[in-house]
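Hey,

The postdoc asked me to send both predictions to you directly instead of through the lab channel. I've kept everything plain text so nothing gets mangled by the mail client. Protein one:
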Amino acid sequence: MLSNPEISILSIYIEVNFKINPLQPASDILIAELGEAGFESFVENEDGILAYIQKSDWRDDILKSVQILGNGQFDMTYDVKEIEQENWNVDWESNFHPIQIDTRCAVRAPFHQKSEVRYDIVIEPKMSFGTGHHETTHMMLQLILDHDFDGKSVLDMGSGTGVLAILTAMKGAAHIDAIDIDNWCYLNAKENVLRNHCEHINVYEGDSSLLGQRKYDIILANINRNILVNDIAVYAKNLKNNGILFVSGFYSNDIPIISEKCVENGLTFTKNLEKNHWVAAKYVN
């Protein structure tokens, strides 16, 4: 029996190395479908995608639900192997490059040189999602940069590394809750919060059932379409009057579905960003 609960986090992962031709839009579709199948993290490279899932969640037939693998428009092959988390982190460091959003914000790892921008965010994601590289995180960071967070109460739902919550703290948010259902993301976000001196961010492990009667000025939810559709009613209930919901994790052709659910719950569409068919949108009540 393990006496230290964190030891269990150092588990064995399955790495699936996908070779893809052509890369787009196949890579984005593949990542979305793998995420719904239970894969936790991805590294994009010039040949395709490295996808990671805990060995305990792996099944020999898990890829049968990934429809794009049967799409004859794309040439896709893959190899499967076990990998220790420590080795994954080494692989991540060799593939992780800092990003910069115009002249205002940068997201980098601890081993990168400090960026000369107003908001310099240091993230060590390990097995968590949220480095700013993926289109959805990048656009959510853009929306945060363009909005006033001074003195606001904020919820970051599906927080991953905590990068979105950290930027809202740097922009002056007064009360911030970050929630993720994955234990590793929960632990990683707590590390990144401390790393960026944002100790007033409260990090929780769980899902939307944790919210209870809490009210927020702004809710951020970068998850996926199915979870968003399921939870938008909860987010709307937990928004203050004149509150704002920023959502991402879905494609442009999903906007009608997301907007219909928002309208049902008293939210109005105001704007969206789009990048490589991914969308981030703003709704208000």
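Protein two:
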Amino acid sequence: MDSAPFDDRDGLIWFNGETVAWREAKLHILSHALHYASSVFEGERAYGGKIFKLRAHTERLFNSAEILGFEIPFSMQEIDDACNDVLKINDIIDGYVRPVAWRGSEMMGVSAQQTKINIAIAAWQWPSYFSPEARMKGIRLKTTKWRRPSPETEPVHSKAAGLYMICTLSKHAAERDGFDDALMLDYRGQIAEATGANIFLVMGDDKLHTPTPDCFLNGITRQTVIKLAKARGIEVIDRVIMPNELINATQVFLTGTAAEVTPVGQIDNHTFSVGDITRWMMDDYDKKVGKILADGLRSPSVRSATTS
């Protein structure tokens, strides 16, 4: 992946209906979004030059904007087309696409009714979110002190930029202690998610258990993996999961656009194996998105395995 700062790269960015040079895609320091977090975004992955679940991501972007009280000044089809165009003009086959919409600088204060709504789309090459070595044995999570808020306190079902502040704080704290990511509980003390991915647990019953997304995003990858699991005959149970149930989990994995399907080997003092169900979900997801299986995690016997 390019190690250059994200404001100093070659390429083109789609910005309010025009393509502009990467280094010229700028906003003013007094933009409302910078001061008051009035911004929504999406994270999309392209495999073989095609964006996976593009329309689902675009619909969620528009829904997030509506929740935050503003309207994106383009149609969904125009945004879909722009996302595809950004891939092509930057010659990206396998990469990451970031649409973002925000309130501009026409008003500075809590009120923002007269601000212009801006939207930009950038794309860049993107390897695995976690290192191949970490994925081989499962990443390590540490429970963070920050909790997902109540739906009465934040717009929790939008992909709003402000909701990710505690994710950054949590991930930084986990990394300082030698972990890969953080496990977030919700305001009730229930297991919620990682900092940018949903979580699944295999219990002793060989069923998949996943927290009910009532105060965090029901991820697009999460929904895809649930369908893949059911297609294999694996029962998926959407329910409240408490931290003390981790002792009963044999396998754990994360799902997300960036994380894809990533095994978890440890949460705090609990350890888990990278077992068959986790491998099947990794394999099935990779096949679904058209990703080349090259990380050595799956064997031919696992690729053809089925559940009863």
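Summary for protein two, as requested: The two ends are 41 Å apart (CA to CA).

Thanks,
C.
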